[in-house]
Amino acid sequence: MRVLLPEGWAPAIGYANGIEVEAGRIIFVAGQVGWDAQQKFHSEEIPPQFDQALSNILAVLAEAGAGPEHICRITAFCCDKPAYMASRRELGPIWRKHMGTHYPAMSMIFVSDLLDNPGKIELEATAVVPRRSLPGSGNSLPTHPFIVRAAPRVTLVVARARNGVIGADNRLPWHLPEDLRHFRDLTMGHTIVMGRRTWESIGRALPGRRSIVISQADAQRFPGAECAPSLEDALALAAQPAPVAVARAIEGAGIAAAAGSPAEESSEVFVIGGAQLFQAALPLAGRAVVTEIDRDYEGDTRFDALDPCEWSIFARTEHLAASGMPYSIVDYRRIPTVASARSGPA
Ligand SMILES: NC(=O)c1ccc[n+]([C@@H]2O[C@H](COP(=O)([O-])OP(=O)(O)OC[C@H]3O[C@@H](n4cnc5c(N)ncnc54)[C@H](OP(=O)(O)O)[C@@H]3O)[C@@H](O)[C@H]2O)c1
């Protein structure tokens, strides 16, 4: 399940603008009011009715083997707007008690009355249990209650010579320890995604980070890393919590793990090369941190300068390495297009 937030939209607090789910079993839950299993109301107040209505939804879902994490949409109907507005502070803890930090696509509608008296609020839900979490589906990806993540923000991290070269013989053509430290500081505690040749060039999983290698090869070839066959699969994997061993390793390094916090709804994923992967990831990236080395190098792998019509410089720092090599670190941000810059719905 992926939370959809178009680029440039204000974050959706307490709901999602959209949810993407893989096809699976779909469960439609009828409008549930605040009565108990015997259809008795115990309160005329909105908070206890809201509490009961959410419990009823979860009870119906449980019949289908589904849980709150499978809910994609909730529509709420309420016939007392002033009372609803006055009780909003109490509704948050009730929501979290049942739903954790899972916020599906939601609509809130105020109506003149509800059928069942003294019902004040009625909730209708739709849930999808993805095929991959069906028993016996053979897919080992677990479902994670209460954890729903936004699509990762993709950032490219590149070091580039003046003539565009980024690699030679599957190595970096220069020796610039200052840039390696910058790379370490930038990516530490985050997920890094790399092409198979870049993995081979580094030769191991970098400590304190979650590594995802894109390759058709067997995952066994990448000890300490996860493997995905495409960039899309790698980003979907990055949106899932890290395997426990990886999360522990990151925490063990004394770092706040990007993968470990269920509260984090959106995280930055660093695409670290090489050229093939940069090319695929460029259209998806909103940020590029480029080390611009002020010298030409011989090489066989290139990264073209970013198009100034599409990218603007957010920050630039000039450096002189101990070796005397001048370089800059430039933080580029994608210029929002008219379509992506529009603000979210009121
Ligand atoms: N200066 C820098 O910032 C920087 C950063 C990183 C790397 N480099 C340099 O770049 C060079 C390596 O770059 P490269 O372009 O040759 O290789 P690469 O992108 O690191 O790896 C290519 C391989 O990764 C997989 N792959 C990459 N993108 C894919 C995609 N979109 N979809 C599916 N699979 C994908 C494929 O693996 P399979 O063939 O296994 O399926 C492909 O053969 C080296 O010289 C390295 O030192 C420089």
Task: Describe the protein's topology.
Blueprint: E1 2-4, E2 18-20, E3 24-32, H1 46-63, E4 71-78, H2 81-86, H3 88-99, E5 105-110, E6 121-130, E7 149-150, E8 153-161, E9 165-167, H4 177-187, E10 191-195, H5 196-202, E11 210-214, E12 226-228, H6 231-238, H7 244-252, E13 268-271, H8 275-281, E14 287-293, E15 301-302, E16 311-320, E17 326-334, H9 338-341
Parallel strand pairs: 1-7, 4-5, 8-13, 8-14, 10-11, 10-13, 11-12
Antiparallel strand pairs: 1-2, 3-6, 4-6, 9-15, 14-17, 16-17
Helix pairs in contact: 1-3
The protein binds NADP nicotinamide-adenine-dinucleotide phosphate (NAP).
NADP nicotinamide-adenine-dinucleotide phosphate binds near residues 214, 231, 273, 280 and 301.
Descriptive tags:
346 residues, alpha/beta, 8-stranded mixed beta sheet, 60s Ribosomal Protein L30, Chain: A, single chain, Dihydrofolate Reductase, subunit A, 17 strands, 4-stranded mixed beta sheet, 2 domains, binds NADP nicotinamide-adenine-dinucleotide phosphate, 9 helices
Coarse structural class: alpha/beta
Strand order of the largest sheet: 12-11-10-13-8-14-17-16
pLDDT averaged residue by residue: 85
Q: Return residue spans where pLDDT drops below 50 for at least 5 consecutive residues.
A: 133-150, 254-266, 338-346
